[in-house]
Amino acid sequence: MDGKLTYCTLVFLLFIVLNGHSQTAINKTEKIMVYQSLSPNIGVKSVSETVKFYTDILGFQQMMSVPESGDLVWAMVGSGNITIMFQEEQNLKDEYPELNERGINSALTFYIKVKGMDILYEKIRNTNSLVKEWHKTFYGADEFAIMDNNGFILTITEDK
Fold first, then answer.
1. Contact assessment for residue 55 and residue 62, using Cβ atoms and an 8 Å cutoff
2. What gap in Å lies between CA 69 and CA 122, rounded to an integer?
3. Can you state the percent helix, strand and coil of the chain, rounding each to 5?
4. What is residue 28's predicted lDDT score, i.e. its pLDDT?
């Protein structure tokens, strides 16, 4: 497992560098840190099953994985400006022992803006994944919510 963990860490660090996370904006008198993006790395029971859900159901593309084929320990999926990373739960806890005392998906939801949300809604509306029907919120947004194969709630919305 140490070889996989080291490889996962190297791939993750390479991703950070390539996406400019270490970049700073420079002012005439001081350096200012500027956040460039946020890509969650989520602990899951099965990376392979999770990638299948996100690619087959939600239309994401698999971008990277460790290993490149077979039983995945880590993978990144993406669509548009969104990237999400998934890491096998025990592998993630081995990397960050502080997570051993926590529930892996305790009270975490994702709010995802899309274009063409009606297409996804029609695809998912008659499945067990739909947990909240299409509705208009008190703040005027159209939304619906689904649960992924790991129990995470994904609220889907679209700017009009």
1. yes
2. 31
3. 30, 30, 40
4. 63
Give the pair of three-digit tokens for residue 99.
């997570």
Could you give the percent of the chain with pLDDT greater than 90?
A: 59
User: Cα–Cα distance between 98 and 111 in angstroms, integer?
Assistant: 26
Distances (CA, A) of 73 to 26, 36, 112, 119: 38, 26, 25, 31
Pairing of strands 153-157, 142-147: antiparallel
- Gap between the Cα atoms of 55 and 86, Å rounded: 13
| Alpha-carbon radius of gyration of the chain | 18
Start-to-end CA span in the chain (Å): 47
Q: What's the rounded Cα separation, in Å, for the pair 88 and 45?
A: 6
**What phi, psi does 132 have (nearest 5°)?**
-145, 120
Please name each of the domains of the chain with its CATH number. Answer: 1-104 (3.30.720.120), 107-160 (3.10.180.10)
Q: Which amino acid is at 73?
A: V
d(C-alpha 76, C-alpha 11), whole Å: 10
Tell me the pLDDT band of 147, cut-offs 50, 70 and 90.
very high
d(CA 16, CA 38): 10
